[in-house]
Amino acid sequence: MLGSWDDVGPDSPLERQPTIGLIGMGAMGRMYAQYLSKAGWNKIHVCDLPTKYEKLKAEYNGVPGVTVLPDGHAVGRSSDFIIYSVEAEFIERVVAEYGPSTKLGAVVAGQTSVKAPEKIAFEKYLPQDAQIVSCHSLHGPSVSPVGQPLILIRHRASPEALGLVENVLRSFGSRYVYLSYAEHDLVTANTQAVTHAAFLSMGTAWACMKAYPWEQGLYVGGIETAKVNITLRIYSNKWHVYAGLAILNPNAKIQIDQYAESATELFKLMLQGGAEGGEQRFRERVEWARSIVFGEDGKKRTPILLSEDVLDRFSLGRTPASPSVPLPPSPHTSVIGQTRNNANSHLSLLAMVDCWAHLKINPFDHLALAATPIFRLFLGVAEHLFRSQKMLDSAIHSALCDTWHRRDDLEFVVAARGWSQCVSFGSFDLYHRRFEETCAFFEGRFEEAGVLGSEMIKAIMENEKVREAQDSKL
Questions:
Q1: Residue 12: alpha-carbon gap to chain centroid
Q2: Alpha carbons 378 and 352: distance in angstroms, whole number
Q3: Three-class secondary structure of residue 281 per DSSP
Q4: What is the pLDDT of residues 209-247, one digit of tens each?
Q5: What pTM was estimated for this model as a whole?
């Protein structure tokens, strides 16, 4: 049967189209259903928890091509291509329950952010005749999939099975990246683990200080705009999106631990200042990290962020999410005259590059391969800082000589170490509680940040198309 699907598409006659099954209708499951339906696929069978059946059935009543079924048994028995879109923490339990009901010869994929548990579950519970071609869209549900990397993993499948998956998911307009399970987990750790840890730490630090940084007048414009928007974007998502990658991916644990260590060691040198050669060692360490990460090869590339000006128009507070509902002020707001280029240590960025250097990670290796929009933007601002000698000298001088941001940097270091310890404990409950406690502080800000963050990422991605076209000519 698979051989007849080599050229199948949503315009093919109904009898030739495969039945596509989605087990799990969270944010990403819904995104997949939306794009598949919009593309014109006519046989999309979906399910969520049995307790949500009636509500889901009413919600998708009249949606073209989508049929809601009671549970994963019904979806598995009827579908030719099945995608498990469930949290990595629960993938084994769900596949153990529904895997035996997989249709004879069906192709099965998982949409988890960590593939090691998924691989074990599929090999253990799927029938031997089931073919495994897994996938992972490297972006959130609110980001357009067009042009974004979509990882495909042909693990236990024929070329025809891979062709079926390619044909079905072509509706997204994404860029296919072909990896193994092990390669996927290494690449996603390199591009997401530390990036998430950095922004989670920023948010926790701000929450502990009980202040929204963009209202203080000391962290405004350019790079700070990107930090704020992405931090709020992360905390507006579900906690499990990040917990699975951090806790279940062994590569991620190593990197998150190193990030906390880098932030701590740099902060200790900042406190030493000129005593016992601390200033010289701080500068030498920062310059060493720059040479490792942004060496000669990096200088040949067109920068991701040509100017901070592109970020300025996405500052929070300029366009309230809802004029009729005033945004809540910081509990400890003390607005100071805003200065666009107030020098600060940029400790989160210094620690990021220091972490990459110590782990011998070249972030540019993954930029074209499988970079998420958030990773691309954070790498862009780090590159912007480190490739400008003037900006880097200013950050180093501020780190060593200014004291106004020391308490902020201290809170950041404590937060980074706290997230590292949380991940090392391997507790989803602890991760959940820590995430939600910080999230509560930013309630009321997510809608505005979500709109601005999406527009900011869109603008950066449009610039990236131009940059990549320029680099391809070099």
A1: 35
A2: 9
A3: helix
A4: 998 877 766 666 778 888 888 898 899 988 988 999 999
A5: 0.83
